[in-house]
Amino acid sequence: MLSKNARLWLGLIAITSLLSLASSCSKGGGDDANDNTGPTEGAGKTYTAKNNEGTISGVVSYNGTAPENKKIDTSADSACTSKSPDLKTDEWVVADGKIANAYVYIKDGTLADGSKIGDYGKWPNMPASATLDQNGCHYHPHVLGVVVNEPISITNSDPTQHNVHFTPKNNPDWNQGQANGAPALVHKLARAEVLVPVKCNQHPWMKAYIAVSKHPFFAITEKDGSYSLKGVPPGKYTVVAWHEGGANGTEQKMDVTVAASGAAKADFTFGGTAMAQPGSWPMLEAITFPTLHNH
Amino acid sequence: MSKGVHRFAVFVACATFFLIIAGANVTSHDAGLATSDWPLSNGQVFPKMVGNLFWEHGHRMVATAVGMLTIGLAFYLQFREPRTWVKRLGWAALGAVVAQGLLGGLTVKLNLPLIVSATHATLAQLFFLITVSLAVFTSKRWIESEPLEQMVEGPPVRALCVFSLAMILTQLVLGATLRHSATWDKDLPTPLLVAHICGAVVVTLVLSTTIAAVVLRFRPETYLTRPAAMAAFLLVVQLGLGLAAYTTRRTSPNDPQPLTPMVAVTVAHVACGALVFAATIVLTLRVFRMVRAKQAEYRLAHA
């Protein structure tokens, strides 16, 4: 059995250790990409444009009547209520059967010279930066696409405090408060990931998604459901359309061949009974099939 | 022993229960990371408590108050309590509440890792165990009670009480882990959910047996039968709340935000779980005080 003094010292050491741990942890959580540790996916071969690149374009549609977006109760923060008195979720932005905010990207593929698209880390016309704004206690845009290590500038246009919380699986979790009028936060995601949910724990209805890609061949569909991937090297690719459509999101795949200087078309269709219904627990796989028109 | 010490100990136990409710609200509202700061909230001692910061900072304020009360209780016991082991328990309560505060800070700074959050929720129940125990130990009835004289061989009621307590604590740990495994907008992990439901069955069987043994064998002893009856009533309520919590939580991933029915029911489920634990603690302590060890049992004089 330990003596009284030994127990006292053990207790003091335990408390000091916990204090030290909490203190050391509180020094973390910076506001830039230095938080991202470990190897990144930005490295790889450099692709040099050959002036025979093509395009993949198409339209993402919804089959049937899209679920209605839900009313959000913003009464917990009067600043949100006054700025967005009739706020609704923006999970479904569907007009005339066309879906906006779907993320379309090349998931995998082989270039005409036999190399894999994933072998390349640097492409011509890589986007330089992206912006995510908090306005009306709502994220703009709702879905954002970036390349690895692209600076994401996060701004607060609201007269209230927000906290920006990235909850990725492949990248480090990141949570940072941002007061009204505070300078933009800049954050980078070092690993490819489709998609990183972003939320505000202070206003739990606020949700956005950031897709992180190794290459610039991605797009967010417009209000008319259209998208276009430009500068795609000739080759065979798997193109994926992702839509949040439920708690875990859902996606559709299609194999597309891009000829030299060609224009491939890939349309996707979501909806019908394929989407998770309100109240259902497990996520159901989409069962409708995309149409493919190669040119 | 002054009445004041006992009343203060009861007050601290009640404040701890309120703190558990405040903590449960933080989890159900997904408010744990409403501020990335700790111990300050957004760099302030008293921030504007809007949105989920109301729950997170409110929890911190209640926790601070309970911490202060525990310091007061430890010193109160140190100067007014003659029993050394009770004094030590007072200091143990202070150590537990300090560790609990640090765990709370740690889980915020680490962005709510499951192991730290679940440990934080479990330590809350253990701290509640200590404060409830102190309330029992400082009561006049506890101090003046004598072990029951008429004893016969019988089922080990003491062991049954301890087993019940262990099962309830295990179930509380499972529940805490389940709650912290998925926020309101995510599906609960099925294996943990099944484990928690199985835990409810085991607790119901074990606690019911314990309550039946106590009530049947010590019927005139209200000092024992009252906490047993209270535990039985709370157990029934808790099972109903568990079913309601499952129903509301199941659909919450499709909601635009944590809605009041889900939050109210799940918080009530957590609170009632703590009360079942508290009633069983009181019952166990009183059984240990009144019923002799080994297999000695009390039999009614008129039986």
CATH C-level name of chain A: Mainly Beta
User: What would you call the structural class of chain B?
Assistant: mainly alpha
Question: What does the radius of gyration of chain A come to?
Answer: 23 Å
* Rg from Cα of chain B: 20 Å
Described by strand count, sense and barrel closure, the largest sheet of chain B is:
2 strands, antiparallel
Q: Determine the strand fraction of chain B and express it as a percent band.
A: under 5%
Q: Characterize the overall form of chain B.
A: globular
> What's the total count of β strands of chain B?
2
Question: Percentage of helical residues of chain A?
Answer: under 10%
Total of DSSP H or I helical runs spanning 4+ residues of chain A: 2
The ordered H/E elements of chain A are: HEEHEEEEEEEEEEEEEEEEEEE
- Biggest sheet of chain A: strands, sense, closure? 5 strands, mixed
State the order of secondary-structure elements of chain B, H for helix, E for strand: HHHHHEHHHHE
Q: Describe the strand arrangement of the main beta sheet of chain A, using strand numbers.
A: 9-15-14-11-12
- Categorize the overall geometry of chain A: globular
**Assembly of the depicted chains:** heterodimer
Name of the CATH superfamily of chain A: Cupredoxins -  blue copper proteins
- What low-confidence regions of chain A span 5 or more consecutive residues with pLDDT below 50? 18-39, 273-295
Number of strands of chain A: 21
